[in-house]
Amino acid sequence: MEEKQLPGFIMCVCTGKCPGFQAMDIWDFINQVRVELPVEYGFIHPQLCEEDGDRFLADFLKSHRKVVIGACAPNMQKKMFKDAFKEAGLDIEKDAVMLDIRDMTNEKAISVVEEALEKLGLEV
Ligand code: SF4
């Protein structure tokens, strides 16, 4: 992976029906991430831990781009996504940053993403 490559950002919204995302406007959030923060792109997936999410990750991870995922508990994400990363030849501990952004306002969730990007050495 190249040093200067920006990460991709995936927000998973748990089908869009989960109460955990009702405190934020998800469209304002993802637009702010993709336009204002140092990411290559940002988008929303409806349910990453379902079978089509596995198929999506199998394709997406072929780029070998570092990825930041804003979704549910990081431990759960690691369990659910570890095989996809392994199969893509990636190390989930190094090549992914999992963030829990549930039950947050837009402002709070943005600050969590900013902090994660700063930890990756990016200027926010
Ligand atoms: S990855 Fe997490 S946030 Fe996304 S659908 Fe599964 S449980 Fe919900």
What are the main properties of this structure?
124 residues; alpha/beta; single chain; four-stranded parallel beta sheet; 4 strands; binds iron/sulfur cluster
In short:
The protein has helices at 26-36, 51-60, 74-87, 92-95, 106-119, and strands at 8-12, 41-45, 67-71, 96-100. With 124 residues, it is an alpha/beta fold. It has a domain at 50-119.
Radius of gyration, in Å, reads: 13 Å
Average per-residue pLDDT, rounded, comes to 95
Note the gap between the termini. 21 Å
Q: Strand order, biggest sheet?
A: 2-1-3-4
Percent of residues in helical segments?
40-55%
Number of alpha- plus pi-helical segments? 5
> How many strand elements?
4
| Structural class computed from helices and strand pairing | alpha/beta
Protein name: Heterodisulfide reductase subunit A-like protein
Organism: Clostridium grantii DSM 8605
Compile the SSE list and pairings.
Blueprint: E1 8-12, H1 26-36, E2 41-45, H2 51-60, E3 67-71, H3 74-87, H4 92-95, E4 96-100, H5 106-119
Parallel strand pairs: 1-2, 1-3, 3-4
Helix pairs in contact: 1-5
The structure holds iron/sulfur cluster.
Iron/sulfur cluster (SF4) binds at residues 12, 14, 47-49, 71-72, 77, 80.
Task: Please characterize this protein's 3D structure.
The chain has a domain at 50-119. The radius of gyration is 13 Å and the shape is globular. Helices cover 43% and strands 16% of the residues. It has 124 residues and is α/β, with parallel strands linked by helices. The protein has helices at residues 26-36, 51-60, 74-87, 92-95, 106-119, and strands at 8-12, 41-45, 67-71, 96-100. It has a four-stranded parallel β-sheet, with helices on both faces. It is built from five helices and four strands. The site of iron/sulfur cluster has 9 residues, from α3. This is Heterodisulfide reductase subunit A-like protein. It comes from Clostridium grantii DSM 8605.
